[in-house]
Amino acid sequence: MAVLPLLLCLLPLAPASSPPQPATPSPCPRRCRCQTQSLPLSVLCPGAGLLFVPPSLDRRAAELRLADNFIAAVRRRDLANMTGLLHLSLSRNTIRHVAAGAFADLRALRALHLDGNRLTSLGEGQLRGLVNLRHLILSNNQLAALAAGALDDCAETLEDLDLSYNNLEQLPWEALGRLGNVNTLGLDHNLLASVPAGAFSRLHKLARLDMTSNRLTTIPPDPLFSRLPLLARPRGSPASALVLAFGGNPLHCNCELVWLRRLAREDDLEACASPPALGGRYFWAVGEEEFVCEPPVVTHRSPPLAVPAGRPAALRCRAVGDPEPRVRWVSPQGRLLGNSSRARAFPNGTLELLVTEPGDGGVFTCIAANAAGEATAAVELTVGPPPPPQLANSTSCDPPRDGDPDALTPPSAASASASASASAKAADPGPPTDRGVQVTEHGATAALVQWPDQRPIPGIRMYQIQYNSSADDILVYRMIPADSRSFLLTDLVSGRTYDLCVLAVYEDSATGLTATRPVGCARFSTEPALRPCGAPHAPFLGGTMIIALGGVIVASVLVFIFVLLMRYKVHGSQPPGKAKAAAPVSSVCSQTNGALGPTLAPPAPEPAGPRAHTVVQLDCEPWGPSHEPTGP
Questions:
Q1: In this structure, are residues 314 and 354 in contact, taking their beta carbons and an 8 Å threshold?
Q2: pTM of the model
Q3: CATH of domain 420-525
């Protein structure tokens, strides 16, 4: 019994269970410093001369600094599976492209620095997956476009957004209005020319808004700006007050900026750029009584205008005021007019009716309004009867007239001739005699559109044809080269009425912008589907008609040959003397053996009296070996 304890003591003791060892960390990328001794892990590679994101990154890292390198793109696989990354700095690289979904795995990321790169646009998929992002720094890039959905994933968490020093002319203001937790918004040093009213009304936590050095002439009041300190309040803004910076803009100091003048400011450098009386003066040194507006005055309106139905009409109204008044038009029926398939309202006060109808006549009202008031003017439009319809080729069952070149042409040949004529006219863009637009040779599915030469308009870039049918209001557009004077439409539907207008697209020398000018309009109808005259079921009887017509032609040829044979026998049996006294008959025989026969002298001029007919008899014998050709 004493041996058993001894054996138990000699048995090797089982190793105690040890805690699991951590996974072997990835090697630190070359030229980088990695802090891996304790969590969180950091990979620091600033100024390492990297051309791309190192592929051997430790995917457990919480901080990754890649600033001041030469990285040109961020690919989808570069940051994959880095779910614990909290801070990412890619500042001051040469990044031009960020792949869609490149940050999709960075769901824990709090700060993303992309400033000092060469990004030109930011799409909807490039920031996908950043659902916990707090700070987004995009300053000092070349951004010219920001997609409306680019910030959707981080809209509820973003606290700091810096878009300064870019080339932004427009912003997705609706998307920016959803950043409910943003504290700092940097829009300075861009190309913004306007801010819509109420753009910041939902940013209740905004503490600093920087819009310096843009192209803003005015800043509309916003409910957010009620937190700005007024002059009536004591100096020194409360902690919750908003800081608004807007210096370096060409401000137009009129009554629209009185609300801004009433704010308490201390050391800003805002100045007025206009009107001339206030240009260059310090904004806060201009008294409130000098921020004035001028009500609009209508300086020009179109005289009473009369046009035939179907033609275009242009009504013009010009007004001046401070600020520049907005011009709107009201129809004779009291309806506010805007852009539609038949009308266009331009910001300069021009109203274009592309196709007038008899019901369009009446007194149109031009309303010019601004912040100081409004002014109205009346323009009378009279729509007369339409001009006589244009002649068009058509197939009918009427008998042919004398002298009609198509009198002996079958319907199929006439259609082919009309198509060839349409193609020839389309290739030869000669200006029509009419000053307006002509639609000629319109068949069931095609129509030839012609318009006069518009060379008096300088800088024409192209022509635009727009049309729609009576069955829908969807406009179809065709862009035509500037040297064209006609165009063949081939996508029409048979049996419909079309409204068509031709516009000249040119460069306005006064404004340098692209403008349009109507050349003319026309209304035409396509023909119903072609079918044989008097045959309501042409497809069913088509084969029968062809067979019957062929049989008639064959029978006619046989009868004609039989009549010729009978005439030959009758004249061949008569004596030669009687043939000269016979009734006037002209015998015609086909030359089948190559012989020309006797040469006939040309007939002498006939006297004024009764004409004597000469009968010429040609020997026409059956073909045989003895009638071989003997000479030319």
A1: no
A2: 0.57
A3: 2.60.40.10
